[in-house]
Amino acid sequence: MLPLYTLRDNADTIAAAMDKRGLDARPILSKILNLDQERRNLQTHLDQTLAEANSASREIGQLYKSGKAEEANALKETSSRLKVQSKELQEALSAAADALQESLYLLPNIPHDLVPAGQDESDNEVIHQWGDIPGLEANALPHWELARKFDLIDFELGVKITGAGFPVYKGKGARLQRALISYFLDYNTKAGYQELQVPHLVNEASGYGTGQLPDKEGQMYQVTEDNLYLIPTAEVPVTNIFRDVILDKADLPIRYTAYTPCFRREAGSYGAHVRGLNRLHQFDKVEIVRVEDPANSYDALDGMVTHVKGLLESLNLPYRILRLCGGDLGFTSALTYDFEVYSAAQERWLEVSSVSNFEAFQANRLKLRYREGNDKPQLAHTLNGSALALPRILAGLLENYQEGGGIRIPEVLVPYTGFDKIS
RNA sequence: GGAGGAAUGGCAGAGUGGUCGAAUGCGGCAGUCUUGAAAACUGUUGAGGGUCACACCUCCGGGGGUUCGAAUCCCUCUUCCUCCGCCA
């Protein structure tokens, strides 16, 4: 949700930026500004009425004290009348405020200057590519076949226990998974991100805080009995730590990392692209989250990009970085870089990380602010990124590292796995 | 799950129907003093809306109600504490 004050003076600039998303924001912007004006008028009117009512009540108290019961009773009528009036105004005000809120929820974040205009993923800009595409042996297999061959992952067993998209990791597969989580967490911690363990279920307020609600309700698993949601990403619990928080400027920047399983209904997904580990309902991810002074948030974003690059390079996985175009940019993001690893056996790029600056968009919903000295609190900027999502990294490792009838383990992982080869 | 108690400003803690956004203490900030610091003293110190700036309005866990008037009374929800039960 964009802060109102950014909309009041810049409607034209914002509309131009929104065009890059393929969204004509002009109608909704003018609606918002009108509702804002209406809301303020009603508020002023209500405030005046309440001020009158308050002073009448005060006077009644005084009159009673000085024994002038008659005058007091006369004033009560005035007061009652004002009360009825204020109730009506209150209702009109609530209606206007709700309508305003609703419209604000519909407006996505303003794309950053760097965001290219574009329709969909084909318009994303490749800004960086690293590593050699490995030439695989003739009999190279996709990861789902490798997983079966070496008994690393059992997809059918997951179907039996839960359903499609809930794999069971076994033996060295499970161990490799755990090794990756530990390696990622250690790597992030060394870079200054504090490790957290957070709840995997969140309440409604948290869902609204990071913007999963009300729009993406259908994408989350819901525990209706207790009105809780299974988290689709650690971003939700971690960022909500800061809901309704006023930080001291000296506390910034804040950097957290957390491993969690992620649960996504992925309603509407189907086809070959969802085979194996490519798309799951439950998967593991290590996330990094930052809270920044607005003046530094784009340096922070660059820092996160560099960080994820280092992580992928340490695993020697060929990757490229995309700057998402307006049409592919997430609702809440101002600028996003996607990382894709090349899967040689599938001959396609797999998204393994998404690094975004949300500027004040999330902070506004969260009421996450910071204060410098005695100044008024200001909205902070939030950023997050995957470092990294496990399944497609695992897929990339299995496929790119297959050689001589086995799978080699990258050097940096050997201390974590305790073995250097799967065969 | 059962029984009882509680929820007030950054923290502690007064306040049981009228001028209470709320005593007091601690903490924070500014100043006096000091070579500097500490101590002491003085002042200041919640958030949101609104205004050029004031005024003014809202908020004492959330929601609803009683009343001319609610932190204070009533209903309800949530959370926390104590005791009992169950339990990794």
UniProtKB/TrEMBL annotation:
Name any one GO molecular function: serine-tRNA ligase activity
Q: Which residues form a coiled coil?
A: 32-102
Compartments where found: Cytoplasm
SUPFAM superfamilies per the record?
Class II aaRS and biotin synthetases, tRNA-binding arm
Query: Which EC number(s) are documented for this chain?
Result: 6.1.1.11
Supply the Pfam families for this chain: Seryl_tRNA_N, tRNA-synt_2b
Pathway listed for it? Aminoacyl-tRNA biosynthesis; selenocysteinyl-tRNA(Sec) biosynthesis; L-seryl-tRNA(Sec) from L-serine and tRNA(Sec): step 1/1
- Write down the chemical reaction(s) this protein catalyses: tRNA(Ser) + L-serine + ATP = L-seryl-tRNA(Ser) + AMP + diphosphate + H(+); tRNA(Sec) + L-serine + ATP = L-seryl-tRNA(Sec) + AMP + diphosphate + H(+)
Residues annotated as domain Aminoacyl-transfer RNA synthetases class-II family profile: 142-415
What's the superkingdom here?
Bacteria
Report keywords, A-Z: Aminoacyl-tRNA synthetase, ATP-binding, Coiled coil, Cytoplasm, Ligase, Nucleotide-binding, Protein biosynthesis
Entry similarity comment: Belongs to the class-II aminoacyl-tRNA synthetase family. Type-1 seryl-tRNA synthetase subfamily.
Instruction: State what protein this is by name.
Output: Serine--tRNA ligase
Q: What is the lineage of its organism?
A: Bacteria, Pseudomonadati, Bacteroidota, Flavobacteriia, Flavobacteriales
Name of encoding gene? serS
